[in-house]
Each structure stands twice: as C-alpha cells, then as structure tokens.
Design goal:
- With 203 residues, the protein is mainly alpha-helical.
- Helices cover 31% and strands 3% of the residues.
- The protein has a domain of 135 residues.
- It is built from 5 helices and 2 strands, in the order βαβαααα.
- It is globular, with a radius of gyration of 18 Å.
- The structure holds fe (ii) ion.
- The site of fe (ii) ion (FE2) has 2 residues, from loops.
- The site of fe (ii) ion has 2 residues, from loops.
C-alpha cells in the first residue's frame, strides 16, 4: 500500500526506507524551493520577454520556440544557482549533504494543441526512469514552476510500484542520447525518432 506523507518530519534514513517501499512524500514550499522556482521563472521570463511564457506558443513560430528552449533549458540546468538551491532543499528537508549525490535539476515543458510534441518538448510515455538508465537507488523530486492543473500535472501509478512491467528499454542507449541531446531542439516533427522506452502493449 502506498502512503502519501504530507510535510513529514521523519528522519532522512526512515524517509528513504519508506520511499524505497513505494511511499510518496509531499512538502509545502520551503525557502529554498521557493527560491528555486523564482530563479527558474526569472530565467524563463527573461528568455520569453516580452511574451508571457505560458502563452508564448500562440505568438511564436515553432522553430523559434524550440530554439529558445534549446538555449533556456541547459542554461537553467547548469546554472550554479540551480545547483546551489537543490543542495539547500536537501539540507532543509533533513538530508546530510556529506552523504548525498544529486543531479542538476531538469526543467520540463510541454505545449498544447500539438504545437510542439517532439524533440526538446517530447511528452514521455508512462515509464520507469530505470528504463532510461537511471540508477536503481535514484530518488526523484519534483516541483511545479507555474501553477498546475489537472491538465498539466503528473500521474503516479502506485499499483505498479513493485510489479514487473514488460518494456522495450533495450532500445535505449544513454550514451547515444548524450551525443545527440544538444540538437534535440532542432527536431520539430519527430523525424529523428527520439527513443523513449515504454511499456509493451497490453501491459
Ligand atoms: Fe521519468
């Protein structure tokens, strides 16, 4: 059974144990997570100015939009402030930074009305991150940057947590993806067939 913990104060070790058993933890905004969101918004709004980023797709040629994301996302991901704020969040929530390895934060985006659905804005099918070469011990943290609604949130499928799922992860090669990711924003039609492992039909 999956338990959802709200603003839990249990220890980091106990939390990890519960996460690895399938539980989900939700935390209210903290000083560092609020700062990370403000930092992300400021980079996004600078990049899209004078347009409103949430509606920019209605006023931009799709190639320009994809190119903008191609610059914006790596800028945020590798920005020293992004990295510093992620470590602050870990510390705020009880993690011992001397014992943590963390990845730089990834910025996700999607568009509506089939404006841009491939390349840098590909909407991934339901998946396990391990199918994309994530280590089995990886713990994922998410935060919305703008308000979420039922149309742009993320779904969890807890009943599958400890159930094997047939999949085609054999098609994925992380080294190949790394060698092509820099040009993902040039793919406006899906012609490059960005490989996205998924469950096999019938699962
Ligand atoms: Fe994922």
């Amino acid at each position: 059974m999956t338990v959802i913990h709200l603003d839990s104060t249990i220890s980091d070790d106990e939390r990890r144990e519960r996460l690895f058993a399938g539980d989900i933890f939700i935390y209210s905004p903290s000083a560092a997570s609020t700062a990370l969101v403000a930092h992300a918004r400021s980079l996004i709004e600078d990049a899209f100015a004078p347009l409103d980023p949430e509606h920019a797709q209605f006023a931009m040629p799709v190639a320009d939009y994809a190119n903008l994301l191609g610059r914006l996302k790596p800028h945020f991901i590798h920005h020293p402030t992004s990295k510093a704020l992620v470590s602050e969040i870990i510390a705020e929530l009880g993690g011992d930074l001397a014992r943590y390895y963390f990845d730089v934060p990834k910025m996700r985006s999607s568009t509506s009305d089939n404006y841009l659905t491939s390349g840098i804005a590909l909407a991934f099918p339901p998946h396990r991150d391990t199918w994309y070469s994530a280590p089995f011990c990886q713990i994922n943290w998410w935060t919305p940057i703008y308000g979420i609604t039922r149309d742009n949130g993320m779904a969890f499928f807890p009943k599958y947590f400890d159930t094997p799922i047939a999949n085609n992860s054999e098609v994925y090669n992380y080294y190949k993806w790394n060698s092509t990711r820099a040009t993902a924003h040039l793919d406006l039609t899906g012609s490059s067939q960005r490989v996205a492992p998924s469950a096999r039909p019938g699962q």
